[in-house]
């Protein structure tokens, strides 16, 4: 600070209420205001000039000189105390160095009585105390808000963990982590009770201890505080861990600084399913303990949920296993049923080729065998579909052709029942992209079902239309016994049948409509049924997406495949079933084979192949010892050329079975029992023909 003259300082100082003096470093007063004059004991401020302040200070002069000396050396304020006349009236002096107009050094002194300074200091201290109290209050409020926020977030996050965690151990571990992070627990743990309700097993641990093994990994009911909480089904909460009888390791509690403990039983329907507990190095408030009790209930419910889910999973797995075994049983049953059908069907085919006088009876038996074969086929088809093993061989086909084929297949059955069948087809062909064999099977099953459940002389109809939404409709209708209203929702389920008569004249396996539904859905379509009840008939409607007509086939190529001439053949039939071997031998002879040999197992078949040199070899896959696949590979290895035809004969006809046959070296794959047409086609194979 700079001043011009003592006079200008006086004008400056008179603007203040405090006593101000301008003194030289030696203590000579150069100027002052009226308040300073009053403090020193003179009437007018002009009387202050050139007086020695040390004389006024009396006994406090040394302190004054020291104060002036220190103030001269620093630009900061220097504080001291002097007596002005009366030693009992101490004054506080605040000195500050300033520069005069002529660059001389002066000291400006502000003088105030000590009692005023004391009051000001006391007031300042009071302000500080008030400020400290306000800071403490705000900190307490902030701490309370933070605690309430943490408690609220703890409750929210616990709920999320219990609901969203897929596994129970993950949910419980998340709960203990939240007790540590949100509630500032030293560590938290959750135990689950074993099935016998005798022992608690540590599942989750967070904070100071994260391991789930060791001394407290298993606690018997009634042991320690945790076991007693479980046994008594009562919580235990304390903010005085030191001295608490339930906390047995007091030395550990003192060493770790533990203050509070909260433990809660996890109870589900009156049964203890676990214990949740935490230690803290700070007291636990009532709001937290109340929330922990609620959380314990939520954890118990989550344990119940997991128990229910585990039970359902076990039941589902048991049902899935039972269903798998059922499918395997159906597949094995259908396979085993095929084996005895081979000699029966072949024997009847042989009788048809003979000059027997009982052709009508033979034809009747053939139809019954065909019916049995079809039942076995349906049984196997359902098993395949249920296991997702059926693959469609799609092509563009006319629906009308499929309908006519199905009618031809059932013509005898319809005529025998005296039914009148009406077929209504649209003027323009309706094309669908489908597996013709499977879709014919659908129509045939529906028509057979209508025939079966219609009394003698009934009326059946098949109507084909194309809808505006580019859907093909196949409607099979009858005026038969109808379907009970209550049965309609289950009519397509496996083994579902309408009411039967005592003589089971409408019998069957109850799988035909299940097969229909699955095959139609595999084609991207739907099937539905309507009936007004018993005695009103029924209508089954199949909806399939239409497609465009295919290009015309090459007629020259078609003609070229028909211009073939058969040549003499040698046939080797290998089957461990003696009756099947005999019938195959006889029927091939009737079909014109030059010579037929048989074998019952792999070794004899290999010997026969090397000596007999057959053109056609039929191998049963299920041979004892060396199976048909291994036998086929050995035959291929021993053959000098591939001019012969190697055909698998088995009760299994799934896609993977055919692929397995192909990989083993088979040229073709026939499913038991083979029809006479299939055997005739083998003898007419292009490999055996010459133009």
TrEMBL record:
Residues 570-687 form the Response regulatory domain. Keywords: Kinase, Membrane, Phosphoprotein, Transferase, Two-component regulatory system. It catalyses: ATP + protein L-histidine = ADP + protein N-phospho-L-histidine. One of its GO terms (molecular function) is phosphorelay sensor kinase activity. Its EC number is 2.7.13.3. The modification 4-aspartylphosphate is found at residue 620. InterPro entries: CheY-like_superfamily, GAF, GAF-like_dom_sf, HATPase_C_sf, HATPase_dom, His_kinase_dom, HisK_dim/P_dom, HisK_dim/P_sf. Pfam families: GAF_2, HATPase_c, HisKA, Response_reg. Residues 332-548 form the Histidine kinase domain. The keyword Membrane applies. The keyword Kinase applies. PANTHER family: HYBRID SIGNAL TRANSDUCTION HISTIDINE KINASE C, TWO-COMPONENT HISTIDINE KINASE. This is histidine kinase. It comes from Stieleria neptunia.
């Amino acid at each position: 600070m700079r001043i011009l003259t003592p006079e200008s300082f006086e004008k400056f100082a008179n603007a203040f209420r405090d006593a101000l003096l301008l003194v030289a470093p030696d203590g000579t007063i150069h100027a002052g205001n009226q308040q300073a004059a009053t403090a020193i004991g003179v009437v007018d401020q002009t009387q202050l000039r050139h007086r020695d302040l040390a004389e006024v200070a009396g006994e406090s002069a040394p302190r004054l000189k020291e104060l002036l000396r220190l103030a001269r050396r620093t630009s900061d304020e220097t504080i001291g105390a002097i007596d002005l006349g009366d030693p009992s009236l101490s004054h506080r002096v605040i000195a500050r160095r300033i520069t005069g107009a002529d660059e001389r050094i002066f000291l400006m002194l502000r003088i105030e009585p000590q009692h005023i300074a004391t009051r000001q200091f006391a007031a300042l201290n009071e302000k500080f105390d008030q400020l400290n109290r306000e800071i403490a209050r705000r900190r307490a409020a902030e701490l309370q808000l933070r605690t309430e926020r943490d408690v609220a977030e703890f409750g929210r996050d616990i709920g999320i963990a219990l609901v969203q965690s897929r596994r129970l151990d993950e949910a419980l571990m998340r709960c203990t982590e939240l007790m540590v992070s949100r509630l500032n627990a030293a560590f938290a743990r959750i135990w689950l009770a074993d099935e016998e309700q005798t022992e608690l097993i540590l599942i989750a641990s967070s904070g100071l201890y994260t391991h789930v093994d060791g001394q407290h990994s298993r606690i018997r009911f009634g042991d320690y505080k945790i076991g007693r909480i479980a046994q008594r089904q009562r919580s235990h909460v304390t903010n005085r861990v030191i001295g608490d009888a339930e906390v047995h390791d007091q030395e550990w509690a003192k060493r770790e600084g533990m203050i509070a403990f909260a433990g809660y039983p996890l109870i589900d329907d009156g049964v203890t399913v676990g214990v949740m507990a935490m230690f803290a190095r700070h007291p636990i408030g009532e709001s937290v303990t109340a929330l922990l009790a609620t959380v314990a209930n939520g954890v118990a419910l989550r344990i119940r949920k997991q128990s229910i889910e585990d039970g359902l999973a076990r039941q589902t797995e048991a049902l899935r296993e039972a269903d798998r075994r059922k499918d395997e049983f159906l597949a094995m049953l259908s396979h085993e049923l095929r084996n005895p059908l081979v000699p029966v069907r072949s024997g009847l085919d042989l009788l048809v080729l003979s000059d027997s006088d009982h052709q009508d009876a033979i034809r009747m038996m053939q139809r019954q065998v065909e019916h049995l074969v079809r039942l076995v086929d349906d049984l196997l088809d359902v098993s395949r579909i249920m296991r997702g093993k059926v693959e469609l061989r799609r092509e563009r086909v006319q629906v009308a052709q499929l309908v006519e084929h199905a009618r031809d297949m059932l013509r005898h059955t319809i005529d025998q029942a005296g039914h009148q069948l009406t077929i209504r087809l649209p003027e323009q062909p309706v094309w669908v992209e489908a597996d013709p064999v499977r879709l014919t099977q659908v129509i045939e099953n529906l028509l057979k079902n209508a025939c079966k459940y219609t009394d003698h002389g009934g009326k059946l109809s098949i109507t084909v239309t194309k809808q505006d939404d580019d859907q093909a409709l196949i409607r099979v209708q009858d005026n038969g016994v109808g379907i009970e209203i209550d049965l309609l929702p289950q009519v397509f389920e496996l083994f579902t049948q309408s009411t039967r008569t005592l003589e089971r004249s409408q019998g069957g396996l109850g799988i035909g409509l299940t097969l229909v539904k699955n095959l139609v859905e595999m084609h991207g379509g739907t099937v539905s049924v309507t009936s007004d009840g018993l005695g009103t008939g029924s209508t089954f409607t199949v909806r399939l997406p239409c497609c465009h007509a295919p290009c015309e086939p090459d007629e020259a190529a078609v003609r070229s495949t028909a211009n073939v001439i058969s040549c003499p053949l040698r046939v080797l039939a290998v089957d461990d079933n003696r009756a099947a071997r005999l019938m195959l031998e006889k029927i091939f002879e009737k079909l014109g084979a030059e010579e037929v040999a048989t074998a019952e197992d792999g070794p004899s078949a290999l010997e026969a192949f090397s000596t007999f040199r057959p053109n056609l070899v039929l191998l049963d896959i299920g041979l004892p010892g060396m199976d048909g696949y291994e036998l086929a590979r050995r035959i291929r290895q021993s053959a000098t050329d591939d001019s012969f035809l190697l055909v698998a004969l088995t009760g299994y006809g799934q896609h993977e079975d055919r692929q397995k046959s192909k990989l083993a070296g088979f040229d073709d794959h026939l499913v038991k029992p083979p029809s006479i047409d299939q055997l005739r086609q083998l003898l007419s194979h292009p490999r055996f023909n010459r133009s």
